[in-house]
Records
---
Amino acid sequence: MTDIFWGSVLSLLSLSLILAFVRLVRGPSLPDRVLALDIAITMAMGIIAVYAVQNNQPVFLDVALILALLSFLGTVAFAYYIERRV
Amino acid sequence: MSMWIVAALMIVGAFFIFIASLGLVRMPDLFLRMSATSKAATLGAGLMLTATIIYFQDFAITIRVLSIITFITLTIPVAAHMIARAAYFDGVPLWEKTEIDELRGHYYLPTHELESEPDSPIGHDQVQREEADDFI
């Protein structure tokens, strides 16, 4: 029962990651790709939350905190680059 | 009892993240994609992290996860706005069925400042004719 539940949650998140990478490959412009990477990191935070509950390991949540910090820094750096490029 | 709440929050959060990725693929325009993904993904990740709070029920973990949730609710809209602003300067095309573009003719290109003079008519045709090379 619990295996089916965690499998369904993780498959929903994996499908979302696949769709985000479809946009990353197809994206007609550079900001589309930056947006796809940003959303992919948010989905990775959801996967980390699932693993922390599934394995009863709250240490994994530190990774989610660092990922949130890094994704914001990366997005701001990309936005600065795109704006200065014009 | 709390296991059911954890399960419900996890599945609803995963569903919202899935909706965000659907919007990322199906929306016709960068700005529509951005408005679909930033809200739904923030809600989904926040719900999944709230599920970890209810599962562990420990003070230190609660503080840590609440700081993560506060951080993502503060930073994801700021990041989305910065990407949208940079994309508007970059000239990313709007959807062809867009009715109105109120930003048009208001960004002063040399300084990247937003100009809005209330005494002059907003009509972007006039601004375009006068200083077509300075305003975007």
Note: Chain A has a mean pLDDT of 92.
---
Amino acid sequence: MKSSKFTFYLLLVPVLLWLVLLIVLPHIDLFISSFQFENDDGDMVFSFNNYLAFFEDKIYWLTFVKTALYSIAVTILGFVITFPVAFYLTKVVARKFSIFMTLLLLIPLWVGELVTIYGWMILLSDTGVINNFLISIGIIETPIQMLYTNFSLTIGLVYMSMLFMIIPIMSALDSLDDSMIEAACDLGATKWTIFTKIIIPYAMPGIASGGIIVFMLVIGDYIAPNILGGKSSLWFTEQIYNQFLSTFNWNEGASFGFLLLLLSSLIIFIALKLTGQKLDRVGR
Amino acid sequence: MIRSLPNSRRYKIVYRTYIALFYLFLIMPIAAISVLAFNDSDFISLPWLGATFDWFFADTNDRVGLFFDEGLISSIFVSLKTGFIVALLSTIVGTMAALLFEEEKFRFKGFLYFLALSPLVIPGVILGISILLSSTYAGNYMEDNFGLDLEFLRPSFWLVVFGQFSFGATYVMLLVSARLKKFDRTLEEAALSLRASRLEAIWYITIPFLKPAMIGAFVVAFLISFSNFNTTIFLVGSDPTLPVDLYSRIKFSSTPVLNAVSFLIVAFITVFAVLNLVMKKKG
């Protein structure tokens, strides 16, 4: 038994070091420094000023609310776009094609967000591929401004996050027995009934974990809003970056970070409650 | 609706068109980069001015190709090194976490498991700033009280490694746990009853069983590290990783060499994915 105790601690200690030093302590420090404020004498004192600044300056909380609502909208849009694809790949297309088509999905995912968002920048710019194409086939005469608008922001956010939605939904649908759909069809159910009464409920765990991961990626994203979004499409993470990397007001940045963490945890908590899922199923 | 059921012609056509459009949307940015990497122009986008390998191999005053751009080569090297160390650390600790949560019983297990999963729902920005804050506090504390100037507590190569490891280990843990759930525990019990110690049983029985999942997890952790930007940007020191370098070039000085680097990444990933497919078909 003694050696078994030894093994237990051998496993426990590195895991504890990871969780305490890199997860717990940093977040405690984030919480504490969000209440630190430099007073007129240059001393750090406890204060609510960082949070007051957030509520007093309109641009901060407007960006905050916009980011939250936009992230929810992008998550729903991502679901609507990818669900038919997930269903097609698991249930409709012949199996020999589905392996290849699934692999094709993984390539943009592995290539990474920065490269694909840069690709969209090339596609959408005024001298870009799409404008050139539209001019050459005669639909438009002068380039349309697509880059640095809410349109390009939405495309970027959907593109970088949608594959994280598709994969959990596919793994949920994979185990759905075809005979359930066949039986419903034999009994005269319409496509809509089959879709809402069988397919959606069955895929719910996948939809919930995909939705949560997508929401978290979108609300915490910086690259797509910063490269594709314009001045009118500020993202809350950009405010955090500015506080840390431009104005060096780390305490203000910490309070923004803490608010973002609070907001994303709250929305994820509500989503888990609404769909009846648990956190330990996310990421399966 | 599904393979075994008949469908109307119109339904089939509409569905297939939708899937084709989706794949067009998916491939467009990657295709654009790959083609424009060979454009004989000084601007990143159109018009097409003929094909050239300049953005890979040129070394003139006007054009510096990818392989002669010292800054880029160095950031690629930094990213490879970071990715390798992060993947190694994440695989070791992530596997330990999987063994701990799947096989051991102890107090506060549920709470610790929740913490281990939390990087999945914490935005990367938050992990970046909070690790930056606490390492700066710790660094100042060490300097004020012991006169020690510890480099790894300031933005540097090692701080990036720790930051990426903090969520890399979570992904490894999930991937290894999934395989561990299929493990026949009686094999381990048999080893124990034959007087192997618990550690020996894990080392000789469980680890070999987990090996395929551990290799897969290593690759995933490497790829996550190699493309990470959101956490890295706060922790990076004087040597940028490739995404940090690319980002500042996109923002401030974009030349088609960016297309060339992006093409190289795409080509590497595609070859890797095809190899993966071939291996799976054989195995």
Note: Chain B has a mean pLDDT of 84.
